[in-house]
């Protein structure tokens, strides 16, 4: 997969793709990341990256010309047509399903905005879709683009090792993960649950499964309802789970 990233602050991406699974995927040739400075397309007269909003109001708006010209030029750097994603607080919220969809693309072009927003004509002119990483306010799209790259990389076939991919399966069940413990067996009086030291693998499996189910029910009733629904599609309402309205 090739990922191009367009930003006013490309320096922010320096270290983040040079560690861990993303680094390994790049080294293995599974992932190519190219960052681009929007200022490369703001050289001419009046070619600022931002301008005041029509209709007034606070803050600045990212100008449409350099953005569109940059997206077109970057698109031509490779034979594959990129899927263009504008990171935006107004976008479709990223979840593992969206991540999986993006991971199937041969090429992404992530556009990270700054200021109050991007001229509305940008999305229509480039076919960009808007994606948000959650309902909180960031200072710009760069950190969100890092989140997308990190999550998508994990789903590129071969990017994640066998031991790490077991963890992915557990997310796919729709449950939160069970607790983890390692040595020592007792620390400041806090004990590891004895079943985990028992050597009884079936008992361990059952314990972890039950932990996952209870943890999910308590912390994430939204996930739990979806989980219960997908397990028992035609079952009667479960008296333990129903009407636990939030
Ligand atoms: C004052 C109104 N704000 C909208 C909530 C303006 C505004 C805040 C933050 C406009 C842009 C930004 C910068 N944020 C992003 O570029 C961004 C973002 C985010 O703030 N939250 C979650 N996902 C994303 S993706 C890009």
Concise description?
This protein has 246 residues and is of the alpha/beta class. 35% of the residues lie in helices and 17% in strands.
Topology:
Blueprint: E1 2-7, H1 20-27, E2 32-37, E3 50-51, E4 61-62, H2 64-75, E5 83-93, H3 96-103, E6 107-112, E7 117-118, H4 121-126, E8 129-132, H5 142-153, H6 162-172, E9 186-187, E10 190-191, H7 201-219, H8 221-231
Parallel strand pairs: 1-2, 1-6, 4-7, 5-6, 5-8
Antiparallel strand pairs: 3-4, 9-10
Bound molecules: ligand 9D3.
Characterise this structure.
- It is a single chain.
- This protein is an alpha/beta fold.
- The chain contains eight helices and ten strands.
- It has helices spanning 20-27, 64-75, 96-103, 121-126, 142-153, 162-172, 201-219, 221-231; strands at residues 2-7, 32-37, 50-51, 61-62, 83-93, 107-112, 117-118, 129-132, 186-187, 190-191.
- The strands form three sheets. The chain has a five-stranded parallel β-sheet, with helices on both faces.
- Strand 1, helix 1 and strand 2 form a beta-alpha-beta unit.
- The chain is elongated and about 75 Å long.
- The two termini are 41 Å apart.
- The structure holds ligand 9D3.
- Ligand 9D3 is lined by residues 87-89, 113, 116-117, 132-134, 136-138, 140-141, 144.
Element-level helix/strand string: EHEEEHEHEEHEHHEEHH
Cα gyration radius (Å): 23 Å
How can the largest sheet be summarized?
Answer: 5 strands, parallel
Q: Tell me the structural class.
A: alpha/beta
Poorly predicted residue ranges? 242-246
Share of β-strand residues = 15-25%
Looking across the biggest beta sheet, what order are the strands in? Answer: 2-1-6-5-8
Q: Based on DSSP secondary structure assignment, what is the total number of beta strands?
A: 10
The ligands bound in this entry are:
ligand 9D3
How far apart lie the N and C ends?
41 Å
Mean pLDDT: 93
* Principal-axis shape: elongated
What is the helix tally?
8
Question: Helix coverage percent of residues?
Answer: 25-40%
């Amino acid at each position: 997969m090739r990922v191009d990233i367009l930003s006013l602050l490309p320096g922010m991406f320096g270290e983040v793709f040079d560690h861990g699974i993303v680094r390994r995927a790049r080294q293995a040739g599974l992932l190519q990341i190219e960052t681009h400075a929007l200022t490369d397309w703001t050289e001419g007269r009046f070619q600022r990256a931002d301008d005041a909003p029509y209709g007034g109001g606070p803050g600045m708006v990212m100008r449409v010309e350099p953005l569109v010209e940059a997206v077109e030029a970057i698109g031509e750097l490779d034979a594959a047509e990129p899927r263009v994603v504008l990171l935006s607080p107004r976008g479709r919220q990223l979840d593992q399903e969206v991540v999986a969809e993006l991971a199937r693309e041969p090429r992404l072009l992530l556009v990270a905005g700054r200021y109050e927003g991007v001229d509305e004509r940008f999305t229509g002119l480039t076919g960009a879709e808007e994606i948000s990483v959650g309902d909180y306010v960031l200072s710009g799209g760069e950190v969100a683009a890092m989140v997308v790259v990190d999550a998508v990389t994990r789903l590129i076939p071969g990017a994640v090792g066998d031991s790490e991919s077991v963890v992915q399966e557990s997310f796919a069940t729709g449950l939160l993960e069970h607790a983890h413990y390692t040595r020592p067996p007792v620390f400041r009086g806090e004990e590891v649950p004895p079943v985990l030291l028992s050597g009884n693998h079936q008992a361990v499996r059952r314990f972890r499964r039950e932990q996952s189910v209870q943890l999910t029910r308590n912390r994430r009733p939204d996930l739990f309802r979806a989980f219960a629904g997908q397990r028992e599609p035609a079952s009667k309402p479960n008296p333990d789970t129903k009407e636990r309205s939030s």
